[in-house]
Amino acid sequence: MIEVIKPGFFTTVQDLGRWGYQSYGVGIAGALDAFALSAANLLVGNLEGEAGLEITLLGPTLKFHQETALAITGADLGPRLDGKEISNWTCHLAPCGSTLSFTGIKSGVRAYLAVSGGIDVPPVMGSRSTYLLGHFGGFEGRALKSQDHLPLGPSPADAEKLIGRFFPENFRPPYRKNPSLRSIRGPFEDFFSEEGLTFFLSTEYTITQHSDRMGYRLQGEPIKRQKAQELITCGLANGTIQVPPNGQPIILLADRQTIGGYPIIATLITADLPLVAQCAPGDKIRFSAVSLDEAREAYLNLWDNLKNFASLSSDKHRGK
Amino acid sequence: MYPWGSERMEGQPRILPAGDQAVLLEFGAEIDPTTNGLVHAFTQRANSHKVPGVRELVPSYCTLLVYYDPFFLSFSETVSWVQELLASRPLRIESFFTLKEVPVVYGGQYGPDISFVAEQNKITMEEVIRYHTSQNYLVYVVGFSPGFAAMGTVPQQIQTPRLPNPRTKVAAGSVGIGGLQTGIYAVESPGGWQLIGRTPLRLFDLNRKPPSYFQAGDHVRFYSIREEEFFKISQEPEYRIQKLE
């Protein structure tokens, strides 16, 4: 069991999302940086989609009431185990009675904590992700508070053999401040003038304070629309970039509503979603357009690294 | 230009990429029962013939979003699957529907915007209730928030634009008018529709399969009840359903 001594700024239980219920208005939710959560799980011997903690900006203080293997990936928020600095993207052993804390942001926004066996809260509609809009899923449908107790699932038998495993930097997404984000144009480009589209692809946008798991509101020169009317509400893919009447784009993310009606100018490619998850208010971003083939290649190259890591590590175990 | 046919041909949807893990099918550009019927006819067909890599289908008023896993499928492969299903035989709009009657306490603390709706349309509050309960509505889509059923089209006499500033909290069961639609907030959530009443029915329940009381394609008829009946039904929710063919 993990005891929450201090909850941190905004910590929720997330897995890779709740699929299959959007027709009932239940959004997918799940880790904003799905790659980082998957890597953290692999480091501790879990399946990629086990539930972990998504930790935002200021990390929690957690006490381990059982020995467990743990790993922290994504942002570097200065993790310490019993006061001693520990490295990110590495599998560590947390002894029974030890305390994990975080000193402060060094880079990125969202860190992911995985523990061997996963966070064993009851699944709701097949997922342990927290769905804040519906107040269900994860730990009681909300962010963690002090005195919450998190149950752990059974640890894989050879968890100790994982200690010291490290997820190489060249296998990770190319996280950086002020990234250029690749997108697929449309599907509603005809709501914008040619000028508006060119503009969108050449302007620098600032991420505003009004940004969260539902989406990031951007600020920049307004994009002019060609059609005055709204779109007829349709389903919204992860990374949808919509433009409301004020011309300021919004990037929709994991906690977005299932359907919406602002015109969609472009959609971020899957491989660049982890980059956005690590951007903070005040950061500046630009958009570029790529082809579907380029988008898929980028996704496969990046996600293959999870498979490459898994086989790398199992080779080591077999003493190769 | 998209080679896969982004121009809409007779009865065929426009097919467009929505990023690299979803395909959007646009069956029309209007909110009307026929287009909505086509969306649902195709959604049912597609759900019964899923191939590995097709993750989820999300229908809306006149579109269907097909989520696919780019690990297993490319955009073109997903489009080929869609086109084969479209070509297999003409889409037949389902004529069977379930009629669900919904009890509502109108006005007062349950419908804080009913007087605004009346004033805007230069009618009385009683007439708002009369018009709202005068016909069946089609549930076009369940979305926005868990269990929220968006239905249409309300009589012109009570059509009212959404609030300029949405409320941060709308009580579960609140019945609203948004433009030419009516709908019910199944769970407490933010909301921008004009609230005219509340139903005691539990419209979203995690322990029910499916969790939402409404599905797209349902027909809904509202009827007015008194506050005492509201409390009685709240104690023991009854779902009165009539099937019409």
CATH superfamily of the largest domain in chain B: Cyclophilin-like
Net shape of chain A = globular
Count the E strands of chain B.
Answer: 14
Helix content of chain B: 10-25%
Poorly predicted runs of chain B? 1-6, 239-245
Strand arrangement within the widest β-sheet of chain B reads 5-12-9-10-7-6-13
Arithmetic mean of pLDDT of chain A: 94
Poorly predicted residue ranges of chain A: none
CA distance, first residue to last residue of chain A: 35 Å
Q: What composes the largest sheet of chain A? A: 7 strands, mixed, barrel
User: Share of helix among residues of chain A?
Assistant: 10-25%
User: How many helical stretches of chain A?
Assistant: 4
CATH class of the largest domain in chain B: Mainly Beta
- Based on CA atoms alone, the radius of gyration of chain A comes out at 20 Å
What number of domains of chain B?
2
Oligomer: heterodimer
What does this structure look like?
The complex is a heterodimer of chains A (320) and B (245). Chain A has 320 residues and is an alpha+beta fold. Chain A folds into two domains: 2-171, no CATH class; 180-296, Cyclophilin. Helix content of chain A is 15%, strand content 28%. Chain A has a seven-stranded mixed β-barrel. Chain A starts with a strand and ends with a helix. Chain B has a seven-stranded mixed β-barrel with strand order 5-12-9-10-7-6-13. A four-stranded antiparallel β-sheet of chain B has the order 1-2-4-3, covered by helices on one side. Chain B has five helices and 14 strands. In chain B, a hairpin with a 2-residue loop joins strand 9 and strand 10. Chain B has 245 residues and is of the alpha+beta class. The interface between A and B is large, with 43 and 49 residues.
Question: Brief description of this entry?
Answer:
The complex is a heterodimer of chains A (320) and B (245). Chain A is α+β, with helices and mostly antiparallel strands.
Write the layout of secondary structure elements.
The complex is a heterodimer of chains A (320) and B (245).
Chain A: E1 2-6, E2 10-14, H1 34-43, E3 52-56, E4 61-64, E5 68-76, E6 79-81, E7 84-85, E8 91-94, E9 99-102, E10 107-115, E11 149-150, E12 180-185, H2 194-200, E13 205-211, E14 215-219, E15 234-235, E16 240-242, E17 250-252, E18 259-260, E19 264-268, H3 273-277, E20 284-289, H4 292-317
Helix pairs in contact in A: 1-4
Chain B: E1 14-17, E2 22-26, H1 33-48, E3 54-59, E4 63-68, H2 75-88, E5 97-106, H3 114-120, H4 125-132, E6 137-142, E7 149-152, E8 167-170, E9 174-178, E10 181-184, E11 189-191, E12 194-198, E13 219-224, H5 227-235, E14 241-244
Parallel strand pairs in B: 5-13
Antiparallel strand pairs in B: 1-2, 2-4, 3-4, 5-12, 5-14, 6-7, 6-13, 7-10, 8-11, 9-10, 9-12
